[in-house]
Amino acid sequence: MKKLYVVGLGPGDEQNMTGRALAALEESEVIVGYTAYVDLIRARYPEKAFLATAMRGEVERCRMALEAACGGRTVAVVSSGDAGVYGMAGLVYELAQGYDPIDIEVVPGVTAACSGAALLGAPLIHDFAVISLSDLLTPWELIERRLDAAGRADFCICLYNPASRRRADYLRRACDILLRSRAPETVAGLVRNAGRAGESARVLTLGELREAQADMFTTVFIGNSQTKKLSGGMVTPRGYRDA
Amino acid sequence: MKKLYVVGLGPGDEQNMTGRALAALEESEVIVGYTAYVDLIRARYPEKAFLATAMRGEVERCRMALEAACGGRTVAVVSSGDAGVYGMAGLVYELAQGYDPIDIEVVPGVTAACSGAALLGAPLIHDFAVISLSDLLTPWELIERRLDAAGRADFCICLYNPASRRRADYLRRACDILLRSRAPETVAGLVRNAGRAGESARVLTLGELREAQADMFTTVFIGNSQTKKLSGGMVTPRGYRDA
């Protein structure tokens, strides 16, 4: 059967990829992805065909990949992080319904929640919620409801897409919702460019996070009521009882 | 400064490890972990020292690692999956407070939410909550509150530690809580032994999940209201609007 890999590249450089992800790229004749990610790996594979589209070109990108696979070539669609977390895996499955049967294999990667957490210390050791602040495909009212629910149930929280030029104040709005149920002293963290040039991690409080700047390369962490600042890191205990 | 790596091995075999994780093991003189994980990698490094403790020996394991690092040896503490998700990273930071200053570096890995999701298709494409059903260190009332909150806010949900011999009916209890706000037809998934011998993935409904068997090698997925069964897989759309 025709073969299509959906590959999570992890954060940043090749050292963050798994052996399985490297093997899938090696086996593929065509690599399809967002321009910036394709450019990261193009030099490594001079003999392969690359197909890239700009941001928001996800549907077109999937169709190009599915057509190449139906034409008999082994194809890899690449996502940064993990392709199954706000990545391309779902769209590939959905759009594949309109094509010949294709063997789709999702190769998991290290998602930004995990790579960012590692830079901060250990913020997501206990139950956590992952929420995107992008309202492009999701009504803001639902995002707000999820933030409020996660805040009240004392989840650790990881925010993807915390801001963009169009959504400059969304992180502040999210913090205001969390401040309904969480103290301003709650430990929080900001990670930029995990695994890439300009990588940075900063531990602050939820009150300070409300005033902080974020962009599309930022991942945001908010601790639960037990999360501590330890040796400059952000650390959540394994539970609510001593072991 | 003394160096201690906390390394996520990802699921199962070496192909699922990142290059950074392999490099950290390579550099370490002492590797510390739960017996079963240490046995997975022992053969590869005949020249290294291995220190292992049985299940629930986490505190002792961390102390052995910290003492070895304070003795001047480069040490890696290994966890399966990602060391920052119900893993050893937090405990290492907490216990390190009692020792000489140590440079702790967490090397992220592919956590079971991501490796399990990849086997099912794409269940966690949209906002999701990760909840452990183990009440060893967390009161059951809080776990129940989180399940209820995540259910009502239409999060996709991933359950770690869904059952053990002592907690044989916890998955059923969790399903009953989710069924307060979710239809029994909600798409769900069960993954066993991701990346290891006996790997299996099964798509079912929340109603069927209530009757299903799980053990400590199982990861459980419950879709949101939009999650579909597609070509045998479990797929959550990118949002609630068409792009």
From TrEMBL, chains A, B:
Q: Which GO terms describe its molecular function?
A: precorrin-3B C17-methyltransferase activity
Per its UniProt record, what SUPFAM superfamilies does this chain match? Tetrapyrrole methylase
Keywords, alphabetical:
Cobalamin biosynthesis, Methyltransferase, S-adenosyl-L-methionine, Transferase
The annotated pathway is: Cofactor biosynthesis; adenosylcobalamin biosynthesis
| Residues of the Tetrapyrrole methylase domain | 3-209
Domain of life assignment: Bacteria
Q: Which Pfam families match?
A: TP_methylase
Example GO biological process: methylation
Question: What residue ranges are annotated as transmembrane?
Answer: none
Could you say which EC number(s) this protein's record lists?
Answer: 2.1.1.131
The record's section on PANTHER family has: COBALT-FACTOR III C(17)-METHYLTRANSFERASE-RELATED
Name of the protein described by the UniProt record: Precorrin-3B C(17)-methyltransferase
- The UniProt gene name for this protein comes to cobJ
